[in-house]
Amino acid sequence: MKVGFAEAVITPKDGRCLLAGYSPMWSTGVHDDLYASAVCFEDEGTKAVLISFDLLGMDANLRSSLKDRIQSSVSVDKERIFFTCTHTHEGPQLKVYSAEDEPPDYLEEYQDFLALKAAEVAREAESRLQECDVIVNRAYVDENMNRRFFLSDERNLYVPNYKELVPITNQFEDKELGLLYFCPKGSRHPFGVILNYTMHPLTAGNTSSLISADVPGVVRDIIKENMECLTCYINGAAGDNHPKAPEGGFAETRRVGQVLATEATKRRYDAFAIEEPIRLQGITRSVTLTLRSAEELRAIPPHAWEDRLDGLLKSLERPGEPIDVEFSLLGIGPILLIGVPGELVAELGAALKWFSPFKRTYIMYEATASMGYIAHPNAHKWGGYEAITGRFSPYSIRTLFNAIIDAAEEMASYVD
User: Fold this and answer.
1) Which of 273, 304, 334 is at the close of a domain?
2) What is the pLDDT of residues 165-192, one digit of tens each?
3) How many domains does the chain have?
């Protein structure tokens, strides 16, 4: 297998944009640059391209236009172009949430710029293809928390709004730090790293009006300093997993980034070298899900966001109707990366890992669409932010889950 890494700055021109993720506000400058991090793979003439963007998310139309531009510069099938977003809350807002809203004045120009940079960074990654060994490791890093806190009277609280609960929050967290090192043949010193961790990157979100990549940016900088290589940072199923100090500021951003990057650096030393031939596989598939009905939305228990109910009902464009959404699978030998169409919660991400026929499986957040939160049906029984803001019927989530596992098993049969 040949692999090449590249990166490109995608910070908005003049450091001006609406910051996404919280109530939109205009940026006043740049704390640190946003990047598109690309990895190009080639195996027996078959290529795939993976790009991680320091963005909150991108809708399906933007993804399609970016893929068209990439295909104009790299010879790769469209279904083997993979995207994911680190989900920084300190980058440009790219979505228009309602037909009544005016798109920001920078949107069209920035989307054109993004397409140009995506094509450039994919082409540069292709130009750097080299034969490589792949070594892998995992660590367990205690820097995330589940943002839901359940009470005995069947209410639940949103932990970031009650930060005194952080020391005792105890719902599910995925603490696995997945590490893939790509090294020149015969070497254990990587020229590129793919890193996967499950955590909303908003340590500095809503604390300033500056553009920032948040934790992923610090991780990339320190790994580059330590190992002199590039990093493709991939967020896991972070729908309900937060940093332990959300809205803590840039000092906390640096601290958490240093913890993750240091762990990635030291675990390279005892990483496992994959000795069997590494086969590259990649697919993008569509599955029909059902949008949530108004009745399903009203059935969710009372919650702190009850004042949003009318707006959410209005936003259900076609309540209860079917909709086609995509998911993606990128197989790198015994490793599987699963691209999901929104903000999958950690419980579902872990279930995909447990059911996966691949030895190591990682979720790619906001990968194929930006359809909001994807929560398990039990979350809809309890209520809370992930349930109230999700767009899919809770009972269609198993359809997505089953389609992903069926496709993964099909891919694994070729590996075996």
Assistant:
1) 273
2) 999 999 999 999 999 999 999 999 999 9
3) 3
Query: Tokens for 1?
Result: 């297998």
**For the chain, how many residues are written?**
416
Q: Find the Cα–Cα–Cα–Cα dihedral 53, 354, 173, 33, rounded to 10°.
A: -10
Which pairs from 350-356 meet CB under 8 Å and 24+ separation?
Answer: 350/172, 350/174, 350/237, 351/401, 352/237, 352/401, 352/404, 352/405, 355/401, 355/405, 356/405, 356/408
Does residue 356 share a domain with residue 236? no
Q: Is the same domain home to 111 and 142?
A: no
Side-chain-side CA neighbours of 152 within 13 Å: the count stands at 0
Q: Are residues 116 and 176 in the same domain?
A: no
Q: Which residues span the domain enclosing 340?
A: 280-415
Q: Are residues 70 and 137 in the same domain?
A: no
Element (H, E) at 218: helix 215-227
What is the rounded CA–CA span in Å between residue 286 and residue 143? 34
- For the question of whether the overall pTM of this predicted structure is more than 0.85, the answer is yes
Question: Could you tell me the two tokens for 260?
Answer: 């993750």
Looking at residue 78, its amino acid is K
What token pair was written down for 415?
């590996």
What are 150's strand-pairing partners?
156
